[in-house]
Amino acid sequence: MAESMKGLKRTCRCTEVTKADIGKKVTLMGWVQKSRNKGGIIFVDLRDRSGIMQIIFENGPISEEGFEKAAKLRSEFVIAVEGEVMARSGAVNENLATGELEVKAESLRILSEAETPPFPIEEDSKTREELRLKYRYLDLRRPDIQRNLIMRSKVAMLTREFMSKEGFLEIETPMLTKSTPEGARDYLVPSRVHPGSFYALPQSPQLFKQLLMCSGYDRYIQIVKCFRDEDLRADRQPEFTQIDMELAFVDVDDVIDVNERLLAHLFKEVLGVEVQLPIQRMTWKEAMNRFGSDKPDLRFGMELVDVSETVKDTEFVVFKGALENGGSVRGINAKGQGAMPRKKIDKLVEFAKGYGAKGLAYIAIHEDGSWKSSFSKFMTEEQMEALIKAMDGQAGDLLLFAADRNKIVWNVLGALRLELAEQMGLLDKNEYRFVWITEFPLLEWSDEENRFTAMHHPFTMPMDEDLPLLDTDPGAVRAKAYDIVLNGTEIGGGSVRIHQNDVQEKMFEMLGFTKEQAHERFGFLLDAFKYGVPPHAGLAYGLDRLVMLMAKEDSIRDVIAFPKVKDASCLMTEAPSPVDAVQLEELGLEVEPQAEEETTEE
């Protein structure tokens, strides 16, 4: 039978009891982690969000009735215990914060009994994730998940506090907004009052934060939910959280400055890690050429080497063909991997194909300096030696090459570099390597649409010195855009926005929008700009990703209280689910029969 608290007050959490409390009376409440009955004495580990305290029940300090009640305790019962804090009589437990202490119980109340949970509540659970997410309320009791969510709360609180001191105002923007299909798919919400019309859930507060700059608020911040109906991967969720900001009367350096100081503050306060300022900067072009990625992981080397010049006269048709089509030949040197078995190399070739490569050429250098290669028969001895030299190939190294259009070569070698680093154990989660990537291309060419698309969004400011190129060579125009990257993950990005009417019109023209189309999509923003708009710029972090890296987790699901799975469903609430016919009728909607029968399975 569950008992009431009857005016009982908790004095503190379990691990808030210290040596200074020895001899004092305390009242603790929490969940039974485990109970061990040794006959005349019962040991119970009591758990709350702070940790564990050992409770001792024995006849004498507690009544006979109380002792009998303690004998009934099972894991996950919720109890309240009054007792005296003592120095631990048995061996000290080094693994517990309260390992030198125990509480001798004088009274016990069972506030709630519990069925046996479907999996043990323990750190580093080996239970399948689907089962844990189905019973997420139990999973959330695990100390490691609780630490993550406590850390997340601290990051949010410190961010608000820091930004407030920097003069930022926290302003909320609407959740029900207009659909502007740029980028990912919108989640749509049907309107009952306006049949046949829909709101969209925001993919980001982009347009609203720019309007706030037009309205004179000058520094805005919001920790905000965003929604994207896109295919999910390990670090994607249909709803995610941004730390979103916008600043007026600033340029690139101002945005970078305040954000570097914010990151240094968070890492110092939350992890005790010193971030060296200023953070290194690298242009997009340098990042692609050196690392094959605009989010380079700088915890290890293995940089790309462009060997196009070295191989330009060879007869190897793969290299020759790539260069004739305006592409390049580049390689990476996996140090000490020369003895990699053929089977494993074949796996790497398959991996590379997944990123668009037609194949992968390799040279394995043996310990005696001889080599075996997949293409040496098409090259002269001198050409092979020149190639190995260009790659700084030493005895015992494995050299891997991709030849294709630059975009594919970067993609393939960028991914391969990370895959090899993972296999070679080069990725240390205790090391935090930040880098700003700057000067992104303003536009990228889309073969499907046969036009340029905005790499960031249509309101991104080109670099001043590149404005003349908009007419002559649009693909070469660089943007005032910047990403902050940590350990190969982009944790935030932003740009300076266009505030000049003529530049904005030019940009829409480049993207193939007519004036009417631009107005239809972004009319309210363009109208606002007619009434005096300050130069402004912004940045948004993925809060989930940032906390995931700080907590050294591999998935953002481990830092979100109630996450969705890969097919965007929630295993606990079984959302999304059909709704009843009356609700649909009110909204003027009809559901095609087969859609109702589909079940959402992981």
List the helices and strands and how they pair.
Elements: E1 25-37, E2 41-48, E3 51-58, H1 64-71, E4 78-87, E5 101-112, H2 129-134, H3 136-139, H4 143-165, E6 169-170, E7 188-190, E8 198-200, H5 206-214, E9 219-227, E10 239-248, H6 252-271, E11 281-283, H7 284-291, E12 305-306, H8 308-311, H9 317-324, E13 328-334, H10 342-353, E14 361-365, E15 371-373, H11 381-390, E16 398-404, H12 406-423, E17 434-438, E18 443-446, E19 451-454, H13 469-472, E20 481-486, E21 489-496, H14 501-510, H15 515-528, E22 536-542, H16 543-550, H17 581-586, H18 593-597
Helix pairs in contact: 4-6, 4-16, 10-12
DSSP summary, beta strand count? 22
Q: Specify the overall morphology.
A: globular
Q: C-alpha Rg, in Å?
A: 30 Å
Largest sheet: 8 strands, mixed
Largest sheet, spatial ordering of strands: 6-9-10-22-21-20-17-11
pLDDT averaged over residues: 92
Low-confidence segments, given as residue ranges, are 595-602
